Amino acid sequence: MAWIFLVIAGLLEIVWAFAMKQSDGFSRLGPSLVAIVAMLASFALLALSMKTLPLGTAYAVWTGIGAVGAFLVGVWVLGEGASAARIAAALLILAGLVLMKLSSQS
What we know:
Layout: H1 2-22, H2 29-49, H3 55-76, H4 84-103
Helix pairs in contact: 1-2, 1-3, 3-4
């Protein structure tokens, strides 16, 4: 169950990052509220996952999902650039996430 909580927490990190971008510096109410609610839910689920998962694994996976997901949303939804170096960086983060999962005992 901890891994499910962790993946959902990571996905919510993507949601709050995107909503924060859309909030225009928290000057737009709707996206600001989405960002805050998603942030709180993401933190809560991360905390639940840390009851059984090691700190380093949980935090690395959570931030990795958020980083790769935010990169993908930026490219696909916001039209941000996807250079070879940025794609390679995202793939390296993804490889690290897989290795963290495979090396975790929980």
